[in-house]
Amino acid sequence: MNHAAQAHVRSEPIHMNGMPDIAGGREFLTFRLGAEEYGIDILKVQEIRGYDTVTQIANAPDFIKGVTNLRGIIVPIIDLRLKFKLGRADYDQFTVVIILNLSDRVVGIVVDSVSDVLSLTSDHIRPAPEFGSAVDTRYVTGIGALDSRMLILVDIERLMAGADMGLVDAMIE
Predict the structure, then answer these.
(1) Beta-carbon neighbour count of residue 75 at 10 Å?
(2) CA distances from 68 to 51, 91, 148 (A)
(3) What is the rounded CA–CA span in Å between residue 80 and residue 148?
(4) Which three-class secondary structure state does DSSP give residue 123?
(5) What proportions of the chain, in percent to the nearest 5, are helix, strand and coil?
(6) Which band of pLDDT confidence, cut at 50, 70 and 90, is reported for residue 43?
(7) Which pLDDT belongs to residue 85?
(8) Worst-scoring range by mean pLDDT, 5-19, 52-66, 84-98?
């Protein structure tokens, strides 16, 4: 964990996309996909596991790797590198599955590696850039900027509720 990054925590609460405030900021689990660093709300994370073989589902999109049995619960596994069109994913000893608890549904996402947990205040979070229709930023809640680090902050629940995923019931907006 990057303790130097946590030293920048401030005391004012922040409001972002209706997510709950945490005194001193919000905590994000950071992970890598290729050269980019992403962050998701730590409150959505159930556990982190090493990548293991999955049971493939016929006719599923390439980013849906399959399902796995997690203590009696069948969990769909999504490869975010493929979902975000970041190229072929190589699975190695650093590849991990982040198990998420989203709207009472358990889903796993495959990422290249997990970095740490960062606390960000509103001073550290910038609005998501607008690219018009060229880039789909519906799932990007903002950009976290802390010292020289930049995190793409992802609304993982909104991503999993997308029409092409359908893994979480659509959110009421």
Answers:
(1) 20
(2) 10, 16, 37
(3) 24
(4) helix
(5) 10, 45, 45
(6) very high
(7) 87
(8) 5-19
* H helices present in 51-121, as ranges: 80-83
Cβ(28)–Cβ(40) under 8 Å? yes
Q: Which single residue is written with the structure tokens 């018009």?
A: 132
Distances from the Cα of 152 to the Cαs of 56, 69, 93, 139, in angstroms? 29, 30, 24, 10
DSSP-derived secondary structure letter, 92: -
Q: pLDDT digits over 89-135, tens only? A: 788 888 999 999 998 899 999 999 999 999 999 899 998 877 655 55
Q: Counting Cβ atoms within 10 Å, is residue 107 exposed (0-12), middle (13-18) or buried (19+)?
A: buried
Q: Are 113 and 32 in contact (CB under 8 A)?
A: yes
